[in-house]
Design a protein that fits this description.
4-stranded mixed β-sheet, alpha/beta, 9 strands
Length: 192
């Protein structure tokens, strides 16, 4: 039973990196998450869009593993989807909000947390500027989110730390991360 949780600031490359791991290595699968936000153009099947009332009902029925509000939208992970992936022998991999780490670790024994941070705020801002599809407010969020992730790193919450200076290709980062994840789980299984 293996779960990889990837956290990082807006625009750090979480989703792109997870997509690359899933498309390159067959052992990874993203669970379904619920959200109350509007569907984004070109969005894959990774989200089930629900109303606030439906989200409340799922929470009440204990069908969700975690629940948070990010940028005024609600997000939650499906317990059923996670169990399906685990039972199939694959590795669950999902973006997550760093504040949910302990909640998820209390439910599952073999969780690897990955935190992606930019090498500097200047490099991050230049990267955000180069991405025309990302809104300007990402840059404003970046500084606040970076301090939250730095605190988590300082507290030892990251099992794997990826410092992204945006010079490596996503393929290179995915290959390195895959090796680090395998090593983490191999070392964890010898400890358990």
């Amino acid at each position: 039973m293996s779960i990889v949780l990837v956290s990082g600031i807006t625009g750090a490359g979480k989703s792109v990196l997870i997509d690359k791991l899933i498309s390159t290595f067959s052992e990874y699968q993203r669970p379904i998450a619920y959200t109350t936000r509007a569907e984004r153009e070109g969005e894959s099947e990774q989200f089930c869009h629900v109303s606030d009332e439906e989200m409340d009902s799922l929470l009440k029925d204990n069908k969700l593993l975690s629940h948070d509000i990010v940028h005024k939208n609600r997000y939650a992970l499906s317990r059923y989807s996670i169990e399906q992936i685990i039972n199939s022998g694959k590795i669950v991999i999902k973006e997550f909000y760093i504040m949910n780490l302990e909640q998820i670790k209390s439910n599952y024994s073999c969780v690897c947390s990955v935190i992606i941070v930019p090498s500097s705020l200047d490099i991050y801002n230049a990267h955000i500027e180069s991405i025309k599809s990302t809104k300007v407010r990402s840059r404003q969020r970046g500084k606040k989110e970076l301090s939250i992730h730095q605190e988590a790193i300082n507290q030892g919450s990251a099992d794997i730390l990826i410092i992204n200076d945006f010079s490596q290709s996503i393929e290179e980062i995915a290959l390195v991360l895959n090796i680090k994840i395998k090593s983490f789980f191999e070392n964890s299984s010898t400890v358990d």
